[in-house]
Amino acid sequence: MSNDPLRSGRYLILLDILGFRELVATRSAEEVYRTIDDALAYSHYWERMNGEFSTIYFSDTLIFYQRVAGYGHWAFLDAYALAGFLYCAIVAKGIPVRGAVSFGGFTVRLDSSGLHEVYFGDALVEAYDAQGQENWVGISICRSAWEPFARDDSAAFEAFGKEGVWRRRADDVLLLNPFSKLRAYHPSYLLGEVPRPYANWDAPDFPNELKALQFLHDKAEQFEVAGDRSRVAMKYRRTVKFLRKVFPDVYAWALQASQEINLLSSQGKNSSLK
Q: Measuring CA to CA, which residue among 41, 7, 141, 26 is closest to residue 84?
Protein backbone atom coordinates (compact mmCIF):
# COMPACT_ATOMS: atom_id res chain seq x y z
CA MET A 1 0.00 0.00 0.00
CA SER A 2 1.29 3.47 -0.90
CA ASN A 3 2.34 5.86 1.88
CA ASP A 4 1.06 8.77 -0.21
CA PRO A 5 -2.42 9.58 1.22
CA LEU A 6 -3.58 10.89 -2.17
CA ARG A 7 -2.79 7.53 -3.75
CA SER A 8 -4.07 5.33 -0.94
CA GLY A 9 -7.17 7.29 0.06
CA ARG A 10 -10.74 6.77 -1.10
CA TYR A 11 -13.76 9.03 -1.27
CA LEU A 12 -16.53 7.95 1.05
CA ILE A 13 -20.16 9.08 1.28
CA LEU A 14 -21.93 8.27 4.54
CA LEU A 15 -25.68 8.73 4.91
CA ASP A 16 -27.42 8.17 8.24
CA ILE A 17 -31.20 7.58 8.36
CA LEU A 18 -32.61 9.97 10.96
CA GLY A 19 -35.20 8.77 13.45
CA PHE A 20 -34.36 5.13 12.76
CA ARG A 21 -34.65 4.06 16.40
CA GLU A 22 -38.19 5.43 16.57
CA LEU A 23 -38.99 3.80 13.24
CA VAL A 24 -37.94 0.37 14.56
CA ALA A 25 -39.84 0.89 17.82
CA THR A 26 -43.11 2.05 16.26
CA ARG A 27 -43.37 0.33 12.86
CA SER A 28 -43.73 -3.25 11.74
CA ALA A 29 -40.73 -5.22 10.57
CA GLU A 30 -42.11 -5.10 7.01
CA GLU A 31 -42.37 -1.29 7.08
CA VAL A 32 -38.81 -0.99 8.38
CA TYR A 33 -37.63 -3.37 5.66
CA ARG A 34 -39.33 -1.31 2.94
CA THR A 35 -37.72 1.86 4.28
CA ILE A 36 -34.27 0.27 4.10
CA ASP A 37 -34.96 -1.29 0.71
CA ASP A 38 -36.02 2.09 -0.70
CA ALA A 39 -32.82 3.65 0.62
CA LEU A 40 -30.67 0.94 -0.96
CA ALA A 41 -32.43 0.70 -4.32
CA TYR A 42 -31.08 3.99 -5.61
CA SER A 43 -27.54 3.38 -4.40
CA HIS A 44 -27.51 0.12 -6.36
CA TYR A 45 -28.82 2.03 -9.37
CA TRP A 46 -25.84 4.39 -9.16
CA GLU A 47 -23.45 1.50 -8.67
CA ARG A 48 -24.54 0.30 -12.09
CA MET A 49 -24.60 3.76 -13.68
CA ASN A 50 -21.30 5.03 -12.29
CA GLY A 51 -19.26 1.86 -11.88
CA GLU A 52 -16.68 3.47 -9.58
CA PHE A 53 -18.46 3.25 -6.22
CA SER A 54 -19.89 0.41 -4.12
CA THR A 55 -22.43 0.19 -1.29
CA ILE A 56 -22.22 -1.03 2.29
CA TYR A 57 -25.27 -0.95 4.53
CA PHE A 58 -25.53 -1.55 8.27
CA SER A 59 -28.53 -0.79 10.52
CA ASP A 60 -29.31 2.89 9.83
CA THR A 61 -26.15 3.77 7.89
CA LEU A 62 -25.47 3.63 4.16
CA ILE A 63 -21.87 3.92 2.94
CA PHE A 64 -21.01 4.58 -0.69
CA TYR A 65 -17.28 4.26 -1.22
CA GLN A 66 -14.77 4.63 -4.07
CA ARG A 67 -13.75 1.18 -5.26
CA VAL A 68 -10.25 1.94 -6.54
CA ALA A 69 -8.09 3.95 -4.16
CA GLY A 70 -6.50 7.23 -5.21
CA TYR A 71 -7.43 10.88 -5.55
CA GLY A 72 -8.59 12.04 -8.94
CA HIS A 73 -10.29 15.22 -10.16
CA TRP A 74 -13.15 13.04 -11.36
CA ALA A 75 -13.40 11.23 -8.01
CA PHE A 76 -14.22 14.38 -6.07
CA LEU A 77 -16.74 15.50 -8.70
CA ASP A 78 -18.39 12.08 -8.63
CA ALA A 79 -18.42 11.94 -4.83
CA TYR A 80 -20.19 15.22 -4.18
CA ALA A 81 -22.61 14.73 -7.10
CA LEU A 82 -23.48 11.17 -6.07
CA ALA A 83 -23.94 12.30 -2.48
CA GLY A 84 -26.57 14.75 -3.71
CA PHE A 85 -28.32 12.24 -5.97
CA LEU A 86 -28.50 9.60 -3.21
CA TYR A 87 -29.65 12.13 -0.64
CA CYS A 88 -32.47 13.44 -2.84
CA ALA A 89 -33.64 9.99 -3.88
CA ILE A 90 -33.96 8.88 -0.25
CA VAL A 91 -35.52 12.10 1.05
CA ALA A 92 -37.97 12.03 -1.88
CA LYS A 93 -39.34 8.84 -0.28
CA GLY A 94 -40.00 10.73 2.93
CA ILE A 95 -36.94 9.24 4.62
CA PRO A 96 -34.82 11.99 6.26
CA VAL A 97 -31.06 11.48 6.13
CA ARG A 98 -27.96 13.35 7.20
CA GLY A 99 -24.54 12.68 5.75
CA ALA A 100 -20.94 13.61 5.06
CA VAL A 101 -18.32 13.18 2.35
CA SER A 102 -14.74 12.42 3.38
CA PHE A 103 -11.47 11.27 1.82
CA GLY A 104 -8.86 9.05 3.44
CA GLY A 105 -7.94 5.54 4.40
CA PHE A 106 -10.72 3.01 4.00
CA THR A 107 -10.14 -0.74 3.88
CA VAL A 108 -12.73 -3.18 2.59
CA ARG A 109 -11.82 -6.87 2.40
CA LEU A 110 -13.06 -10.33 3.27
CA ASP A 111 -11.95 -11.98 6.50
CA SER A 112 -9.74 -15.08 6.40
CA SER A 113 -12.79 -17.35 6.15
CA GLY A 114 -13.98 -15.53 3.06
CA LEU A 115 -17.46 -15.25 4.59
CA HIS A 116 -17.57 -11.79 6.13
CA GLU A 117 -16.67 -8.35 4.83
CA VAL A 118 -14.48 -6.22 7.08
CA TYR A 119 -14.35 -2.46 6.61
CA PHE A 120 -12.64 0.29 8.60
CA GLY A 121 -10.57 3.44 8.20
CA ASP A 122 -10.12 7.07 9.14
CA ALA A 123 -12.37 8.22 6.29
CA LEU A 124 -15.26 6.31 7.87
CA VAL A 125 -14.56 7.69 11.35
CA GLU A 126 -14.30 11.23 10.03
CA ALA A 127 -17.52 11.04 8.00
CA TYR A 128 -19.45 9.47 10.87
CA ASP A 129 -18.27 12.11 13.35
CA ALA A 130 -18.83 14.96 10.88
CA GLN A 131 -22.47 14.14 10.13
CA GLY A 132 -23.20 13.50 13.81
CA GLN A 133 -22.05 16.99 14.76
CA GLU A 134 -24.49 18.72 12.40
CA ASN A 135 -27.96 19.79 13.50
CA TRP A 136 -29.70 19.71 10.14
CA VAL A 137 -31.01 17.35 7.44
CA GLY A 138 -28.21 17.76 4.93
CA ILE A 139 -24.74 16.77 3.75
CA SER A 140 -21.42 18.25 4.79
CA ILE A 141 -18.16 17.90 2.84
CA CYS A 142 -15.15 17.42 5.10
CA ARG A 143 -11.95 19.34 4.47
CA SER A 144 -10.19 16.05 3.70
CA ALA A 145 -12.54 15.65 0.72
CA TRP A 146 -12.46 19.12 -0.82
CA GLU A 147 -8.90 20.26 -0.10
CA PRO A 148 -7.17 18.03 -2.70
CA PHE A 149 -9.60 19.29 -5.32
CA ALA A 150 -9.09 22.92 -4.28
CA ARG A 151 -5.32 22.50 -4.72
CA ASP A 152 -5.81 20.67 -8.02
CA ASP A 153 -8.26 23.17 -9.54
CA SER A 154 -8.66 26.29 -7.41
CA ALA A 155 -10.58 28.15 -10.11
CA ALA A 156 -13.27 25.45 -10.33
CA PHE A 157 -13.44 25.21 -6.54
CA GLU A 158 -14.07 28.95 -6.18
CA ALA A 159 -16.54 28.95 -9.08
CA PHE A 160 -18.62 26.16 -7.54
CA GLY A 161 -18.92 28.15 -4.34
CA LYS A 162 -20.14 31.22 -6.22
CA GLU A 163 -22.62 29.10 -8.18
CA GLY A 164 -24.29 27.81 -5.03
CA VAL A 165 -22.95 24.25 -5.15
CA TRP A 166 -21.91 24.67 -1.52
CA ARG A 167 -21.32 27.20 1.24
CA ARG A 168 -17.98 27.26 3.02
CA ARG A 169 -18.34 27.64 6.77
CA ALA A 170 -15.82 29.30 9.07
CA ASP A 171 -14.59 25.89 10.26
CA ASP A 172 -13.78 24.90 6.64
CA VAL A 173 -16.70 22.48 6.33
CA LEU A 174 -18.60 22.79 3.05
CA LEU A 175 -22.38 22.63 3.36
CA LEU A 176 -23.54 20.93 0.19
CA ASN A 177 -26.49 22.06 -1.87
CA PRO A 178 -27.59 18.60 -3.07
CA PHE A 179 -30.08 19.86 -5.65
CA SER A 180 -27.79 19.89 -8.67
CA LYS A 181 -30.51 19.22 -11.26
CA LEU A 182 -32.72 22.06 -10.00
CA ARG A 183 -29.76 24.42 -10.05
CA ALA A 184 -28.71 23.31 -13.55
CA TYR A 185 -32.16 23.48 -15.15
CA HIS A 186 -33.42 26.74 -13.68
CA PRO A 187 -31.84 28.87 -16.46
CA SER A 188 -33.46 26.56 -19.05
CA TYR A 189 -36.81 26.93 -17.29
CA LEU A 190 -36.53 30.72 -17.50
CA LEU A 191 -36.07 30.34 -21.27
CA GLY A 192 -39.06 27.99 -21.51
CA GLU A 193 -36.88 25.00 -22.36
CA VAL A 194 -37.88 22.57 -19.60
CA PRO A 195 -40.77 20.52 -21.01
CA ARG A 196 -43.82 19.41 -19.07
CA PRO A 197 -44.71 17.28 -17.26
CA TYR A 198 -41.89 17.76 -14.77
CA ALA A 199 -42.40 14.20 -13.53
CA ASN A 200 -40.95 12.89 -16.80
CA TRP A 201 -38.08 15.34 -17.25
CA ASP A 202 -34.63 13.81 -16.63
CA ALA A 203 -36.19 11.09 -14.49
CA PRO A 204 -35.54 9.88 -11.90
CA ASP A 205 -33.15 12.57 -10.68
CA PHE A 206 -35.03 15.79 -11.49
CA PRO A 207 -38.41 14.64 -10.07
CA ASN A 208 -36.58 13.18 -7.05
CA GLU A 209 -35.12 16.60 -6.31
CA LEU A 210 -38.53 18.26 -6.56
CA LYS A 211 -40.08 15.73 -4.20
CA ALA A 212 -37.17 15.94 -1.75
CA LEU A 213 -37.30 19.73 -1.56
CA GLN A 214 -41.06 19.62 -1.08
CA PHE A 215 -40.65 17.12 1.78
CA LEU A 216 -38.11 19.32 3.59
CA HIS A 217 -40.22 22.43 3.06
CA ASP A 218 -43.43 20.77 4.26
CA LYS A 219 -41.79 19.34 7.39
CA ALA A 220 -40.34 22.73 8.31
CA GLU A 221 -43.75 24.36 7.75
CA GLN A 222 -45.50 21.77 9.89
CA PHE A 223 -43.13 22.36 12.79
CA GLU A 224 -43.50 26.12 12.38
CA VAL A 225 -47.30 26.00 12.43
CA ALA A 226 -47.23 23.77 15.51
CA GLY A 227 -44.83 26.13 17.26
CA ASP A 228 -42.43 23.23 17.74
CA ARG A 229 -38.98 24.29 18.98
CA SER A 230 -37.56 20.81 19.47
CA ARG A 231 -34.16 19.67 18.20
CA VAL A 232 -35.84 17.75 15.37
CA ALA A 233 -37.80 20.83 14.31
CA MET A 234 -34.62 22.91 14.31
CA LYS A 235 -32.94 20.45 11.95
CA TYR A 236 -35.57 21.11 9.28
CA ARG A 237 -35.65 24.86 9.88
CA ARG A 238 -31.89 25.15 9.48
CA THR A 239 -31.92 23.02 6.35
CA VAL A 240 -34.64 25.07 4.67
CA LYS A 241 -33.02 28.35 5.76
CA PHE A 242 -29.75 27.24 4.16
CA LEU A 243 -31.44 26.25 0.89
CA ARG A 244 -33.45 29.48 0.68
CA LYS A 245 -30.22 31.41 1.10
CA VAL A 246 -28.04 29.41 -1.29
CA PHE A 247 -30.49 29.49 -4.23
CA PRO A 248 -33.58 31.63 -3.44
CA ASP A 249 -34.94 31.88 -7.01
CA VAL A 250 -34.54 28.18 -7.66
CA TYR A 251 -36.17 27.35 -4.33
CA ALA A 252 -39.33 29.28 -5.20
CA TRP A 253 -39.55 27.74 -8.68
CA ALA A 254 -38.98 24.20 -7.35
CA LEU A 255 -41.86 24.50 -4.91
CA GLN A 256 -44.18 25.50 -7.76
CA ALA A 257 -42.91 22.69 -9.95
CA SER A 258 -43.33 20.13 -7.19
CA GLN A 259 -47.01 21.00 -6.95
CA GLU A 260 -47.44 19.74 -10.51
CA ILE A 261 -45.91 16.40 -9.57
CA ASN A 262 -48.14 16.19 -6.50
CA LEU A 263 -51.21 16.91 -8.63
CA LEU A 264 -50.31 14.26 -11.20
CA SER A 265 -49.66 11.77 -8.42
CA SER A 266 -53.04 12.51 -6.83
CA GLN A 267 -54.82 12.17 -10.16
CA GLY A 268 -53.10 8.83 -10.75
CA LYS A 269 -54.21 7.53 -7.35
CA ASN A 270 -57.78 8.71 -7.90
CA SER A 271 -58.01 7.12 -11.34
CA SER A 272 -56.72 3.80 -9.94
CA LEU A 273 -59.58 3.78 -7.46
CA LYS A 274 -62.28 4.04 -10.12
A: 141
